[in-house]
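COURSE: Structural Biology Practicum
ASSIGNMENT: Worksheet 4, Part C
STUDENT ID: 0417
INSTRUCTIONS: Below are two proteins. For each, the amino acid sequence is given first, followed by its structure token string. Answer the questions at the end about the second protein only.

PROTEIN I
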Amino acid sequence: MTFPVDPIPNALAEDIGSGDLTSAFLVPTDHQSAARIFAKAEAVVAGTEVARAVYCQLDPEIAITVRRQDGDLVHPGDTVLEIAGRTRSILTGERVALNFIQRLSGVATITRKFVDAVAGTGAEILDTRKTTPGLRILEKAAVKAGGARNHRLGLFDAVMVKDNHLLAHPDLPAAIQEIRQRHPKLLIEVEADSIEQVREFVRLEAIDVILLDNMSPEEIRKCVALRRTGLKFEASGGVSLATVRAIAETGVDYISVGQLTHSAPSIDFSLELCAIAK
């Protein structure tokens, strides 16, 4: 797995620093072991390939077998990775590998709960840019493992006109038209916080999506009724597992949920040495 900005070297350097003192003093250099990483709670697993990459960067001679793929449901005791090689390497990489799997599985697990909550409505769950700095691409991959869809990766791959942009009083129709001419295939989305704004934005045919910000289900339903061909609606703000079904049943196309990445609780995984060879 490759990343635009690889977070793994930073994570290893942060944890190891000048060296793993405990393993250096207690574990012989040539000592070999087998180990496994296993779930300690029910979860949707994510980050297995990241954990593999941790060990491959730490010790290219270590052998890794992925037993559960990202997106798989696991139960307590289920093995997700098997590791064989130098005991020092296994122990030195343990915490970094576990940190990635625990965090990313947490994202995938809560994502699956939201996806299941809107099943059958036709609405799709989207993530946001409310991600851990340096881990966005990993957390967005975990969202996909949980069954949801990625929104824009960053500021560079879609246009999202929000209220703060509108405070600059741009000539919005002209700006939208220029964007469409220069970038014919780029997604253009505009945020609205009232039905009056929605009526205005619906007339701009170059807009692909209207984001309905912090609206009630009743307000969302009225906005969706204004739909024209090719236009989609996204609901955002105040979305929780308790409210997402009602929002989905309004006929909205997408529901963006910041909680998927900014508040996902980590899932407990552990590493144990299974076979030790001198």
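PROTEIN II
(use this one for the questions)
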Amino acid sequence: MIKCKLSDPSSTTNSGAKNMILKATGKINNTVSAAGHYIYPGYMIKGKKKNLMIEAGINILGPSYLKDLNRFFNNGDELDYILVTQSHYDHLGALSFLKRALPHVKTGAAPRVGKLMQKPSVIKTMNFLSDQLGDYFKDEIPVTEDNIQITPMAFDMALKEGDVIELGGISCHVYETPGHTRDHLSFFIPELSMLFPGEALGNPAGDGTEVKVEFVTSYSDYMASIEKLVQLNPDIIAMSHMYVYTEEDAHKHMDRTILATRAYRQLIEIYLDQAQGEIKDAVDLMVKVEYDQKGEILMERNAYIANLNAQVAAVHAAGQNC
């Protein structure tokens, strides 16, 4: 979840034509293009027979996604599927809007996501968080329609490991990658050697050469998911926030994610040791030092504390299970 303004990475590249970190906007290659906003891209994918969108970002981007879909596919009616990686509001926030605008489109996610999207309390929280984010981005992403609220919805497809969606000439393969959320999925198109990992590979930070670690529900599951995705050896990684990594930078990002995740666990363990294993005390210490004193964490304070509580608990649980 990203709640801060970030520097524009449009000029970020590494030397060499094949070693690049690209801004997640516009044309990625002849088959894939990014819709909406680079912080919350929705990836539009053309097959020979069917068309797909992966991720549906935040609700205020609904009209922008629809505009880009109409342009990319000539007509939004040519879109066949929308798949989302997880149940967080900044990955499916515009899905209700898009389903209302394009009712023929089949939606897909893990079964748990479908269950959560039927709960009024979950929808209320998602809309509350969306309103906060909308206020933050109001100057950059003006709301152009009233009908953007997230509403309860049923998914057409309950996706699981091993599912394959054929698009004609290319195919989208489903992988279960829990750890950030329990319901997290990643998608891989082998014909393009292109991976859509959601937040299973963390999030880009800084100029894209840093990693924000994103395990929340389970450290061990998160590491196992990273290792699963590494085995795919993708040449392109289309992140759900900010960047697309290609060639050597795709491989480097996976290496950085593993190192950053292990280092972050070790950091949390230091604070747990100082707090004699008390989760609340460890969190309080980390907030005081890592957030308040160092001042280097680019995230709204309350959101940071909420995530940190879950991360410290996950590391504590991993230690107990050793």
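ANSWER KEY EXCERPT:
Q1: The chain has nine helices and 16 strands.
Q2: Residues 20-264 form a domain with the Metallo-beta-lactamase; Chain A fold (CATH 3.60.15.10).
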